[in-house]
Amino acid sequence: MQQLYILFALLLSGSALAQPAQNVILVTLDGVRWQEVFNGADSTLLFDPMYSRDTASARKQFWAATPAERRKKLTPFLWNTIGQQGQLYGNRQTGSRMNVSNPHWFSYPGYNEILSGYADDRIKSNDKIDNPNVTVLEFLNKQPGIAGKVAVFSSWDVIEAAVNEKRTGIPASSANEPTRPVTSADTVLSDMTTLYPREFGDGVRADFLTYFSARQYVKQKQPRVLFLSFDETDDLAHAGRYHDHLRMVQSIDKYLADLWKMIQQMPQYAGKTAILVTTDHGRGHTPKARWKDHGTKTADSYQIWLAAMGPGIRAAGEQAGGPVLFQNQLAATMARLMGFTFTCDHPVGAPINTDQ
Ligand SMILES: [Zn+2]
Prior knowledge:
The protein is built from 15 helices and 10 strands.
């Protein structure tokens, strides 16, 4: 059965790309819904003082008459840059659907599926257990020219287990673990990471610190494969803080704009880098339909989305219709963008044909 699946995956994997990317950046925003990505702020949450304490300022910051205006307010980089030069999948209102294939609809099963290309029954909790699967990061880290040039920066500490830092040797700067400063800027970052107030405990680093740590690493080490994994959006949603959740989504969008602008000035990256932005799971529809939550008790929280841009990704913008896509296709998509076919000892989802 497994051999058959692999054969099937190979048949579906399509042709190689004419011009693969030299570098790829995978970004995850934890528990961010397709509803916000495609419609911007949701009035059932934005205008409810239980979810947005200062509804006047929340409205001022995120409300506009149409979904098209609201989504540009919330995530201008996704819409003004990726929307123009890349692709966005998952707007169910236009018939573009993307789902997780794991039966859990929470974080670690989702990250495993993104990274290893299949839903593994063994990953069924958020416990920090080392991932037994070969991930696409490990696969790429064994390719000539890429070995030693794969790096992970995550706000959530479980990500270092999801990428199995111990077995693979891929550096994974996760949560608030101390780093060894090299430059004076590193020292400031390191001190800030030690001293700032932890909002969600020691297992979560503030997303802005994760971003600045990663940016520093990109400047210094220029990895060819970067996994940048943010977390606070999910914590803020569980806490019922919709306005703050949107502020975090908007900040991460700004980090991505900043990163993209910076790397377009760097010869190693300019015009040679693909970026994939996605999420580990969705959430409930409205306050009454468990927006704060996700998992199998929360209807439709298996629904996800994807934004993609760079070499090998046609500037087709927002997608409508098309086949249902799955989270398990992201690993092979990432490999294909760099010119590789992701194969390992477990079945993997077929790559998305982003060049068509
Ligand atoms: Zn969660």
